[in-house]
């Protein structure tokens, strides 16, 4: 190969020379043809070829040693010529000139001039060319090769010869092809030409003359090697296949391994077995590292173990478990579905409200009812100056097809207006709380579980002709006392509704109360400026007579009544006619008495004169027939007073506040802030710790006296002023009556446990009274023993509700 | 009875009245058959079996122990009874409707009534005790009491000659003698001992004991004997020519917390009381102790004991009448609730001849005649009162008598005699 490179380089260097050579060759080819013609008809095409080749062959032979041909008699003449030529190449150019013809001479002279310049190189080149030619001859003429071999072996003068030997060993078909330099192209490209390609010298390889049918037949008949003669498409020469080639082909045809020497039945040697061999396969000992654990691997394993420990990687089982545990995971394509995507540019961006989708009227081909008729058009036009009043901001138009719709002239303007709207009306996030109304209502027990409480109207007590302002029951619940604006008090039998007694008074009865002392048959009646103690003469006649007897004897007292008291109140005995009616004592006050109330023991009672200024509250004692003015200063318009059921406390309600006084210590205990405009009435829980205040401004206030001076609960159950409130003595009930004619019964459980707040549950609204002069219910009283409630109304009736 | 589109029911007609017996065969009737059609059916069957019978009889029908008031299928469904099996329908002769007979006008409310065979005794809010004949003629009016007369009672209902008792809110009761037919009525003894008004009085079946109860919560037992039994000295009444005995109670039984509203003798030794304190108590009159107690929900207003079926009817301060069987040991003592009144039922009384019939009067001015087997609807509404009915009485089986706040006593004649 190194030689080849050399050749190429030399070719480059002497490109001009080569051309000249080519010219030479062409000319010489022509000469050859001429020679062939001269040589006669005997020579076949193969001979001609052989002639062509023989030039080189001979030259190579000459190279090998300049020895004479011995083998071919046929090519004598040619060989002689060739010999000469080869001599030209090999030997001095001068000698060439002498042997060759005149034309040749001229040519050679030109070449000589060139060659002379580079004479040193010429030697080498010559040798190389010879080498190439040797190879080529070998390829297409195996037989000759062998002969040549025999010839070449003895002569080892030139290195070129040894080289050719080398090539013989590695004979290959590739190198044969090299003879034709056109390369591996379809040979039919040269069909139109005379030549088949070019040889290494650049000479045309002339297509060998193909003999006619007769020649072919003769050849077949005569040539014993005809069967092994094949045509080389590259060169168009006939090649006689050698014996080896034939064998090769035969083996391939028989699908045997082409290499004859390969023994396919050679005994099998098991090199790598599981059995431990006595001797190592390799002759060097095992490396030390093959006996030591790999540090690299150890490092890798420790990393894996660490990762497993830390849970960075999972074992197969763990991963399987996790996968089984995990729900199928879905993820949001966007951050959320319901929230707008956060814009980094605008914090808390509120997207613009969407425009309404176009309706039918916006259609290019709206149904006819959407098109304006004349009236609508007129209306539309009329609102030119107030376009915002128009129902539509455009006139619906009808077109046959969409392509006939013209450009919308107001488009830009409307876009602008929209942008203006968005700009001028800043958007804000409105925080909205969705609270179920039910969740605001406190959890209260069902009224069903709070039985018994009055629910049904049972008995009506009819008889009064005017508003019944006040009612009261006796201690056993057998009788009911009522005082009315018709200047009478009546005593009723509770169970039947029978009016047992009617006692006339001189003035409107504002307040009545039955004496809580069972040993006294007395009722307190406030009528105008008088407060009367009346013996109703019902029930136990012994008690009645005893009461009379007690009141008969006037206790002697040497205490001087202060002027202030004397001017306020005068105790007097009733006249006989009054006595007949049952009146036992009369207390004449200096102002109208609006309310009376007994102390729990039934000896003291308090009277209220709202107009009395600092003398508006008076406490009187029956047994000593003495009155006291507990207050020296007026704290306001006194509305209502109450005694504490067990302690010596007095509750005084002015318009806005309730004050609690300790009567023994004569101090103000507490001042309850009602936060209302006008207190109307009060009731105290039988245990004395809770106070219920009704006000004219529709509220009821529940005060837990232990808890605070502010209302524990404010009940707004009534629509109008609350005029009467009452607690039941035994059942956890309270009731309130108001001007809206409704009596509301509520559950008011007070627990003994101080930590537990009272439980207040409105239970029942009873609305049977009729309105009269905008008044509804005045008095509310519970039956002392049964869960029944009485209400007295402005309509002159008293109603009993039972459970 | 064939060919109706809806389902058929198998019934068997039975009766305890032999004269009206029909062949005991199952019959197939339409499901929605009502009393009227059943009546026709039974009468037809009766005519078939007994051609002589011409007059058709009105029957009432009982299924599952209750009177049929709605179509049979509804009746059965209400009681969750299977309609697959043969239903036994018992029929009884229908209680004929009472006939209004008379109205006795008083000066004031009438709250105590008791009738004997010929006489009607009334107590009035004008403090008077009146005796009327059953034909509506007043015999006498006695104003001995100083307060409303709450209750009256014959000592022996069959013999008016034994006298009667009246109790009043003047804290006394008076034992009167009465010579039948004449107006010679004389107070013989005054019962003193109550501290509050006496509301009710009861005479023991053997007419020897009196029980009274009132607002002083005590039950007091008295003897009916007019002889001076040495309990108290005789207190002469000035205005009466006769001497009037003042009696004190033999026993005072304390236990009620509120007023006693009705007293009934169960036998000669046991008294039952109902009270406003929501209890019914049974007292042993001999041992003077509480035998039994029933605690109810409401304040009781009246009660009536029937010796025929040994049950107690009680009305409370609501719309219901309750039937108590004090001997029952299982379930609630209240066996049935009769609801038809719209207001308080002030008075109830058993019929003394039929264990199923009773009478009630309420503040809704209605007097109702009930059959215990029909708790939802009364047999008859006896109308006529204008105001509250305060007392009903059926001690004379012929007459149902009621008095009320319209100052009148209405007498209904019982045709079912």
UniProtKB/TrEMBL annotation, chain A:
WD repeats mapped onto the chain: 461-502
Residues spanning the membrane: none
Superkingdom, taxonomy of origin: Eukaryota
Entry keyword Nucleus: yes
Locations listed in the record: Nucleus, Nucleolus; Nucleus, Nucleoplasm
Region (Disordered): 1-130
GO cellular component: nucleoplasm; PeBoW complex; preribosome, large subunit precursor
Keywords assigned: Nucleus, Repeat, Ribosome biogenesis, rRNA processing, WD repeat
Annotated SMART domains: BOP1NT, WD40
Compositionally biased spans, kind Acidic residues: 26-125
Keyword Phosphoprotein: no
GO molecular function: ribonucleoprotein complex binding
Family in the record: Belongs to the WD repeat BOP1/ERB1 family.
Function: Required for maturation of ribosomal RNAs and formation of the large ribosomal subunit. Component of the PeBoW complex, which is required for maturation of 28S and 5.8S ribosomal RNAs and formation of the 60S ribosome.
Name this protein carries in UniProt: Ribosome biogenesis protein BOP1 homolog
Source organism per UniProt: Psylliodes chrysocephalus
UniProtKB/TrEMBL annotation, chain B:
GO biological process, one term: maturation of LSU-rRNA from tricistronic rRNA transcript (SSU-rRNA, 5.8S rRNA, LSU-rRNA)
Keywords: Nucleus, Repeat, Ribosome biogenesis, rRNA processing, WD repeat
Pfam families: NLE, WD40
Sequence ranges of the WD repeats: 191-223, 253-284, 338-380, 382-417
Cellular component GO terms held in the UniProt record: nucleolus; nucleoplasm; preribosome, large subunit precursor
Subcellular location(s) of the protein: Nucleus, Nucleolus; Nucleus, Nucleoplasm
UniProt KW Iron keyword: no
NLE domain boundaries: 9-76
Keyword set includes Nucleus: yes
Stated role: Required for maturation of ribosomal RNAs and formation of the large ribosomal subunit.
UniProt name for this protein: Ribosome biogenesis protein WDR12 homolog
């Amino acid at each position: 190969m190194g030689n080849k490179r050399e050749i190429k380089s030399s070719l480059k260097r002497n490109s001009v020379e080569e051309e000249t050579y080519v010219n030479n060759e062409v000319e010489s080819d022509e000469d050859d043809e001429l020679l062939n013609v001269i040589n006669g008809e005997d020579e076949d095409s193969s001979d001609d070829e052989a002639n062509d080749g023989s030039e080189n062959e001979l030259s190579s032979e000459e190279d090998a040693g300049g020895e004479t041909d011995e083998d071919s008699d046929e090519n004598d003449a040619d060989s002689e010529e060739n010999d000469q030529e080869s001599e030209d190449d090999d030997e001095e150019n001068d000698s060439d000139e002498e042997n060759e013809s005149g034309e040749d001479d001229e040519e050679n002279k030109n070449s000589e001039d060139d060659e002379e310049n580079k004479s040193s190189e010429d030697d080498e080149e010559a040798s190389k060319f010879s080498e190439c030619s040797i190879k080529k001859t070998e390829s297409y003429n195996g037989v000759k090769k062998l002969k040549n071999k025999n010839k070449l072996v003895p002569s080892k003068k030139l290195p070129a010869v040894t080289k050719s030997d080398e090539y013989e060993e590695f004979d290959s078909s590739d190198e044969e092809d090299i003879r034709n330099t056109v390369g591996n192209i379809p040979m039919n490209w040269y069909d139109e030409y005379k030549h088949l390609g070019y040889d290494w010298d650049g000479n045309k390889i002339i297509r060998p003359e193909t003999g006619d049918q007769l020649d072919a037949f003769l050849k077949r008949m005569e040539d014993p090697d005809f069967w092994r003669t094949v045509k080389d498409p590259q060169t168009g020469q006939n090649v006689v296949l050698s014996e080896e080639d034939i064998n090769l082909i035969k083996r391939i045809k028989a699908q045997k391994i082409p290499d004859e020497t390969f023994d396919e039945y050679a005994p099998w040697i098991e090199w790598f077995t599981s059995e431990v061999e006595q001797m190592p396969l390799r002759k060097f000992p095992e490396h030390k590292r093959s006996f030591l654990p790999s540090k690299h691997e150890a490092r890798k394993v420790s990393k894996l173990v660490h990762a497993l420990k830390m849970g960075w990687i999972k074992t197969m089982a763990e991963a399987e478990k996790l996968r089984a545990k995990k729900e199928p995971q879905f993820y949001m394509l966007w951050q959320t579905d319901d929230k707008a995507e956060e814009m980094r540019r605008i914090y808390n961006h509120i997207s613009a409200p969407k425009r309404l989708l176009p309706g039918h009227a916006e259609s290019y081909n709206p149904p006819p009812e959407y098109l304006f008729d004349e009236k609508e058009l007129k209306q539309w036009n009329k609102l030119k100056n107030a376009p915002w009043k128009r129902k539509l901001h455009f006139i619906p138009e009808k077109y046959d097809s969409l392509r006939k719709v013209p450009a919308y002239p107001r488009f830009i303007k409307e876009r602008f207006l929209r942008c203006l709207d968005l700009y001028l009306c800043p958007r804000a996030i409105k925080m909205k709380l969705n609270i179920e109304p039910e969740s605001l209502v406190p959890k209260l027990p069902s009224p069903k579980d709070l039985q018994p409480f009055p629910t049904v109207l049972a008995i009506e007590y009819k008889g009064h002709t005017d508003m019944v302002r006040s009612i009261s029951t006796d201690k056993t619940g057998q009788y009911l006392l009522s005082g009315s604006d018709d200047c009478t008090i009546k005593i009723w039998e509770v169970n039947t509704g029978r009016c047992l007694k009617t006692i006339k008074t001189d003035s409107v009865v504002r307040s009545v109360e039955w004496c809580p002392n069972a040993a006294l048959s007395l009722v307190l009646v406030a009528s105008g400026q008088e407060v009367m103690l009346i013996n109703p003469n019902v029930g136990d006649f012994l008690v009645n007579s005893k009461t009379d007897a007690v009141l008969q004897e006037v206790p002697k007292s040497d205490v001087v009544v202060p002027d202030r008291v004397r001017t306020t109140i005068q105790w007097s005995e009733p006249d006989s006619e009054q006595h007949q009616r049952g009146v036992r004592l009369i207390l004449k006050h200096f102002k109208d008495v609006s309310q009376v109330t007994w102390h729990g023991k039934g000896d003291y009672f308090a009277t209220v004169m709202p107009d009395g200024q600092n003398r508006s509250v008076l406490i009187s004692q029956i047994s000593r027939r003495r009155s006291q003015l507990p207050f020296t200063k007026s704290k306001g318009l006194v509305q209502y007073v109450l005694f504490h059921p067990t302690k010596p406390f007095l509750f005084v309600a002015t318009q806005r506040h309730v004050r609690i006084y300790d009567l023994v210590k004569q101090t103000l205990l507490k001042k309850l802030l009602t936060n209302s405009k006008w207190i109307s009435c009060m009731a105290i829980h039988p245990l004395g710790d809770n106070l219920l205040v009704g006000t004219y401004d529709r509220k009821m206030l529940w005060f837990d006296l232990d808890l605070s001076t502010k209302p524990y609960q404010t009940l707004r159950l009534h629509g109008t002023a609350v005029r009467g409130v009452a607690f039941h003595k035994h059942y956890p009930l309270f009731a309130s009556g108001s001007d809206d004619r409704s009596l509301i019964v509520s559950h008011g459980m007070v627990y003994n446990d101080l930590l537990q707040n009272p439980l207040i549950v409105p239970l029942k609204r009873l609305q049977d009274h009729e309105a009269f002069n905008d008044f509804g219910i005045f008095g509310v009283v519970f039956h002392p023993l049964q869960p029944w409630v009485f209400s007295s109304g402005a309509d002159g009736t008293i109603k009993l509700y039972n459970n | 009875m064939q060919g109706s589109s809806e389902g058929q029911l198998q019934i068997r007609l039975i009766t305890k009245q032999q004269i009206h017996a029909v062949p005991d065969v199952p019959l197939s009737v339409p499901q929605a058959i009502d009393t009227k059609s059943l009546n026709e059916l039974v009468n037809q069957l009766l005519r078939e079996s007994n051609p002589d019978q011409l007059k058709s009889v009105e029957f009432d029908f009982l299924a599952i122990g209750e009177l049929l008031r709605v179509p049979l299928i509804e009746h059965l469904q209400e009681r969750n009874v299977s309609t697959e099996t043969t239903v036994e329908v018992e029929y009884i002769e229908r209680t004929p409707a009472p006939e209004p007979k008379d109205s006795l006008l008083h000066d004031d409310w009438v709250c105590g009534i008791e009738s004997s065979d010929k006489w009607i005794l009334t107590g009035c809010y004008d403090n008077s005790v009146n005796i009327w004949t059953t034909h509506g003629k007043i015999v006498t009016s006695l104003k001995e009491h100083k307060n409303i007369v709450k209750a009256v009672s014959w000592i022996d209902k069959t013999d008016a000659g034994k006298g009667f008792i009246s109790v009043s809110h003047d804290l006394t009761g008076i034992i009167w003698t009465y010579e039948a037919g004449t107006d010679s009525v004389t107070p013989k003894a005054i019962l003193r001992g109550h501290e509050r008004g006496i509301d009710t009085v009861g005479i023991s079946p053997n007419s020897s004991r009196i029980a009274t109860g009132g607002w002083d919560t005590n039950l007091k037992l008295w003897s009916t004997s007019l002889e001076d039994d040495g309990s108290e000295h005789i207190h002469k009444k000035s205005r009466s020519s006769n001497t009037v005995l003042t009696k004190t109670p033999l026993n005072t039984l304390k236990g009620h917390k509120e007023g006693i509203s009705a007293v009934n003798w169960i036998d000669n030794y046991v008294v039952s009381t109902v009270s406003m304190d929501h209890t019914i108590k049974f007292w042993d009159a001999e041992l003077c102790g509480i035998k039994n107690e029933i605690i109810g929900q409401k304040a009781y207003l009246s009660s009536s004991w029937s010796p025929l079926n040994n049950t107690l009817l009680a009305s409370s301060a609501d719309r219901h009448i309750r039937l108590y069987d004090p001997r029952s040991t299982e379930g609630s003592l209240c066996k049935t609730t009769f609801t038809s009144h719209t207001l308080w039922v002030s008075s109830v009384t058993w019929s003394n001849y039929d264990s199923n019939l009773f009478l009630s009067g309420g503040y809704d001015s209605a007097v109702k005649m009930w059959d215990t087997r029909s708790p939802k609807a009364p047999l008859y509404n006896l109308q006529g009162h204008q105001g509250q009915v305060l007392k009903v009485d059926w001690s004379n089986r012929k007459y149902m008598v009621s008095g009320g706040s319209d100052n009148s006593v209405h007498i209904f004649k019982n045709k079912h005699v």
